Amino acid sequence: MRLLVCSSIFLLFFAACQSEPKTKDNGTGLTTDPPTAKVHFRCESSGEDENGVPHNEVFLVVNDQSTKIADVTACDEINKDSYLTFQIPANAVAACGGWYAGAGDYFYALEMKGKIVVMKGWNAEEQTDEGYHYEQHSVVPIKK
Fold first, then answer.
1. Do the domain assignments include residue 104?
2. How many separate domains does the chain show?
3. pLDDT by residue, tens only, the chain of 144 residues
4. Which of 18, 19, 127, 142 has its CA 20 to 30 A from that of 68?
5. How far apart are CA 98 and CA 119, in angstroms?
């Protein structure tokens, strides 16, 4: 009897110490685990052209390493509270974008399989459909 009790306690202790498996989304590489990299977008103004149109550079910063990903007319960081408004998935690790003169460009980043995948979308006043038309724009490896 004592052996049975000791064995049961050992098995309960062993089961409690096991880490929970990563939750993956059908082979996409997206997990519910916290991000392993520090990721954000940085928007830098590069001035205006002769017609007064603003120009901005968009950089993806991963663990303090910066990569230029686009030139756009308007760019601001998008807070997680606004992700739904811009059709950005809740598991995005960073987002930015902006609207100027009837059109906008938007970016978000996902951490997938040791890489950061940047999605780019657009929206315009005169488009005939709805939405932000996101497509994969670039992939940046995570360097520690």
1. yes
2. 1
3. 554 444 444 444 444 444 444 444 545 555 556 678 999 999 999 999 999 999 999 999 999 999 999 999 999 999 999 999 999 999 999 999 999 999 999 999 999 999 999 999 999 999 999 999 999 999 999 987
4. 127
5. 15
